[in-house]
Amino acid sequence: xxxxxxxxxxxxxxxxxxxxxxxxxxxxxxxxxxxxxxxxxxxxxxxxxxxxxxxxxxxxxxxxxxxxxxxxxxxxxxxxxxxxxxxxxxxxxxxxxxxxxxxxxxxxxxxxxxxxxxxxxxxxxxxxxxxxxxxxxxxxxxxxxxxxxxxxxxxxxxxxxxxxxxxxxxxxxxxxxxxxxxxxxxxxxxxxxxxxxxxxxxxxxxxxxxxxxxxxxxxxxxxxxxxxxxxxxxxxxxxxxxxxxxxxxxxxxxxxxxxxxxxxxxxxxxxxxxxxxxxxxxxxxxxxxxxxxxxxxxxxxxxxxxxxxxxxxxxxxxxxxxxxxxxxxx
Length: 330
Prior knowledge:
With 330 residues, the chain is mostly helical. It has one domain. It has helices at residues 2-7, 11-29, 37-40, 44-52, 58-82, 91-100, 111-128, 138-150, 160-170, 175-200, 204-215, 225-248, 254-276, 285-301, 307-329. The mean pLDDT is 90.
């Protein structure tokens, strides 16, 4: 039953996903968020936002929830526009919203979530460049968005690597498009640094901020045994889904096949940043959840509604609710 609801693009499916996403966030809406490294070393755009909407306010939490839900809807739009999964389905939104809601520490306004406002349009620009026959300015625009997003969440700057990988996968070699990526990512930083210098007559605070994002170690830990169990289960589903997609690659159209290769690199880069960048923590989950959501969505879309397929979906849904509700009631 659950798989049948999520496989089809229906109003009941939207309401189902919305209800359980809000339900997962309810315990944390009334509580002050736990501090994270970006509270102590905020990037300028994030600092500007929390000056107007404090991170520990109810309005901030509600706005974060709205942005998360809109992000899930954007994934549905991406799927419809590029036929990433062969049929219109709500499964990518379901998996994204459940995964991104699975850790209570992320039920707040946080820069990686806000950076999605920049990253998803950048990803859209990359995918739409595939059929452009002449010189594409999409790569300047995508790089500009990633550069601007890094002023919100510094670790987004590493995703310029995804732009370069997209150039290799989606486009013929046009050297000017490679130059565009460099110009695009430095332009927001150039304007920010120039404006900062005009106001403060010094760039030292900007230099210190950048250095801090390389050397400051995040002391906060949000992963406990329940989270380890839940993400181990998700990883097993990812293995099944990866095996399925490798077997079905030859049946896919060219663009969806290339997109899934690009998604693999997004997931791999997210994992590498989490493991090797000191300032990276669980906030990266919202970025890593994008390729995982499409991978799992593709797998479950291929399954027939039955006991095991529905059980796996209910386990994902129940696991998220238990992770966020048990600490709230104990």
